[in-house]
Amino acid sequence: MITRRDFLIGSTAFASAYAAATMMPLRAQGTPNFGMPTPPGVGFRRMKLGDFELVALNDGIMRRPLGEEFVRNAPFAQVQETLRVQGLPTEYIDVPYTPFLVVAGNRRILMDTGFSDNGPAMTGRLLANMAAAGFKPEDIDTVLISHYHGDHISGLRNKAGQLTFPRARILVPSVEHAFWMDDERMAAAPAGMKAGFATARRVFTGLTADQLSTFTPGGEVAPGITSIPAYGHTPGHTLYSVRSGSQRFLFVADLTNVPQLFARNPDWAVVFDMNADQARDTRRKVFDMIVKENMLAGGYHFPFPAFGTISTLGNGYEFKPVA
Ligand SMILES: [Zn+2]
């Protein structure tokens, strides 16, 4: 059954904003040119976590003009003011893309994949940054996927269709897989959303049972790594908690888009949250857990090195990147 609720996000504004953030370099005629963003000078960062090592691996960065549509439930002036008081530009937003690697004994586990050569300019740098950090694609034995937006899964295959991580077993949340691989839902989706369904088919179709497995979020997916359901951003959006000794790291994926806006204002709905109410509840619960349990946090769209701490600030939270 396809309900209207499934497609609340099917507006033109959503479709163009989604395209802008995930796949397509949008520079329509007449759009002001805000210049190119600056990628991190060194595109990887290692952190110790107990006996494990974590490596943030930047896939690139995109600069998108900031429009009224970006935050669906706050006045634009307030959104711009929030950026201004942090000394940030108010006319555009720089959105980085950062998968994380967990080195646990002889295991090499990658969380999300970037774009490979399927994305906009200034993306597709994951393998180069991985090489700079000392890892080869065939070293990866497991890929964990948070959700099926193109910026998180496109990099599983290059444009020619070859698997980027040839030895890896790909683990995906069952709820997310079922949603995006549902042909009836794809047929009923608005035009602007069909690309998302097509991307899922492009990367997942043809994989064997050895290469792709689904799991129900809430349990262990690899030694020391537990999946946590965090639905709302997408129907099956899932986080990964990594524990070694007494230390914990939480990969929060797209729990918030850029934290300078949405950690400070967790009730604000970014245009990409498919179920804004559910995403908001999830965001507050997870942020509370991170603060209470003093976890290291990493976000896919957090400013590089994308690792840091979360503390409460006013009615929201603040992300502080590690030095
Ligand atoms: Zn994303």
Q: In the residues, how many domains can be counted?
A: 1
Note the overall shape.
globular
**What fraction of the residues are assigned to beta strands by DSSP?**
25-35%
Distance between the termini: 49 Å
Quickly give the CATH architecture.
Answer: 4-Layer Sandwich
Give the mean pLDDT.
91
User: What is the CATH C-level name?
Assistant: Alpha Beta
Derived from helix and strand composition plus strand pairing, the structural class reads: alpha+beta
* Quaternary status: single chain
CATH level-4 homologous superfamily: Ribonuclease Z/Hydroxyacylglutathione hydrolase-like
CATH topology: Metallo-beta-lactamase, Chain A
SSE layout and pairing:
Layout: H1 12-22, E1 44-49, E2 52-57, E3 60-65, H2 76-84, E4 92-97, E5 100-104, E6 107-111, H3 126-132, E7 142-144, H4 150-153, E8 169-173, H5 174-180, H6 183-188, H7 191-204, E9 212-215, E10 220-222, E11 225-229, E12 238-244, E13 247-253, H8 259-262, H9 276-292, E14 296-299, E15 307-313, E16 316-321
Parallel strand pairs: 6-7, 7-8, 8-9, 13-14
Antiparallel strand pairs: 1-2, 2-5, 3-4, 5-6, 10-11, 11-12, 12-13, 14-15, 15-16
The structure holds zinc ion (ZN).
